[in-house]
TrEMBL record:
Lineage, broadest ranks: Bacteria, Pseudomonadati, Pseudomonadota, Gammaproteobacteria, Alteromonadales
Enzyme class: transferase
Encoding gene per record: tsaD
Domain Gcp-like: residue ranges: 29-317
Main location: cytoplasm
Keywords: Acyltransferase, Cytoplasm, Iron, Metal-binding, Transferase, tRNA processing
Name under which the protein is recorded: tRNA N6-adenosine threonylcarbamoyltransferase
Catalytic activity entry: L-threonylcarbamoyladenylate + adenosine(37) in tRNA = N(6)-L-threonylcarbamoyladenosine(37) in tRNA + AMP + H(+)
UniProt cross-references to SUPFAM superfamilies, sorted A to Z: Actin-like ATPase domain
Similarity remark: Belongs to the KAE1 / TsaD family.
PANTHER family, per database record: TRNA N6-ADENOSINE THREONYLCARBAMOYLTRANSFERASE, TRNA N6-ADENOSINE THREONYLCARBAMOYLTRANSFERASE, MITOCHONDRIAL
Localization of this protein: Cytoplasm
């Protein structure tokens, strides 16, 4: 079986075809394309929902044609069409939902609505080293930060989530305070590589109390206060001070995430940890989580960097699992901007 995956939840248009390996192709992603709207939103310092929707309209169909051509397939070779139905920006979601549902109808194929965060959660299963159930998953991106116990596909227990800014959002906002262009998270991490440990010390929010929820708005405020203090004292900040603040901020975020992951593993009595979402590409975070799992005799799993951010491959894979379980929509479609992960049905 082969399925087309369409991802349009925010500012990236992702298209992919996944094959389950039961036919004439090996199991895995047959072809994929990803178009990022960074240049479109850079002047605004963040994603403009209306512009995102319009760009998805412009790019989705051409990318589908490119993926089919790369795979040397036609719509007749497909067995289903999966599309991100939520959560995300409602306008962007509607583009993918309407195109995906319409193509499925025109091609006579099942249409499979996919939960965006389930796509991220299952993305590590596209790799050779596949985690076995059960495990704890850290889903960390610009829009979400959550810890989930995973006992199977659709068997999700929410352990904790951010009560304000997501980790990726905090990265981008702090990068902006440091004068970095959008998207600032990767640029801040790069800047932190030359930072000096110990010059600045920022809090590890909500780690001094029980529980697995996160909060990053206070950390962002503490960083802004440190920047203002440096400018008040010295009149400006040199390049090294920028790097030192970036280092301290990233260290605080990574430590906070690691502390909560360790607690979650202990609470669930598990040793396997999955990390997915855009921030999962952060090398400092990967190194820290590897240390934690090694101490408990476990392992951390994550997708390859190109599948950490939003992409069509994860939607195609998640869609295939749902399609095989009999999930498909009628002729209607629905974009769901807010959609709890633990409300999904188990497979």
């Amino acid at each position: 079986m082969r399925i087309l995956g369409i991802e349009t939840s925010c500012d990236e248009t992702g298209i992919a075809i996944y094959d389950d390996g039961k036919g004439d192709l090996p199991e895995g992603i047959v072809a994929h394309r990803l178009y990022s709207q960074i240049a479109v939103h850079a002047d605004y310092g963040g994603v403009v929902p209306e512009l995102a929707s319009r760009d998805h309209v412009r790019k989705t169909i051409p990318l589908i044609k490119e993926v089919l051509a790369e795979a040397n397939l036609t719509p007749k070779d497909l067995d289903g069409v999966a599309y991100t139905s939520g959560p995300g920006l409602v306008g962007a979601l509607l583009v993918g939902c309407s195109i995906g549902r319409s193509l499925a109808y025109g091609w006579g194929l099942p249409a499979v609505p996919v939960h965006h965060m389930e796509g991220h959660l299952l993305a590590p299963m596209l790799e050779d080293d596949v985690p076995e159930f059960p495990f704890v998953a850290l889903l960390v991106s610009g829009g979400h930060t959550m810890l989930v116990r995973v006992d199977g596909i659709g068997q999700y227990e929410l352990l904790g989530e951010s009560v304000d800014d997501a980790a990726g959002e905090a990265f981008d906002k702090t990068a902006k305070l440091l004068g970095l262009d959008y998207p600032g998270g990767p640029a801040l991490s790069k800047m932190a590589e030359t930072g000096v440990k110990g010059r600045f010390k920022f809090p590890r929010p909500m780690t001094d109390r029980p529980g697995l929820d996160f909060s990053f708005s206070g950390l962002k405020t503490a960083t802004a206060t440190a920047i203002r203090k440096e400018i008040d004292i010295h009149g400006t900040m040199d390049e090294q001070t920028h790097a030192d603040i970036a280092y301290a901020f990233q260290e605080a975020v990574v430590d906070t995430l690691a502390i909560k992951c360790r607690r979650a593993l202990q609470q669930c009595e598990l040793t396997r940890l999955v990390i997915a979402g855009g921030v999962s590409a952060n090398t400092a975070l990967r190194a820290k989580l590897a240390q934690i799992t090694q101490k408990v005799g476990g392992q951390v799993y994550y997708p390859r960097p190109e599948f950490c951010t939003d992409n069509g491959a994860m939607i195609a894979f998640a869609g295939m699992q749902r399609l095989k379980a009999g999930t498909n929509s009628d002729l209607t479609f629905k974009a769901t901007p807010r959609w709890p992960l633990d409300s999904l049905s188990a497979i």
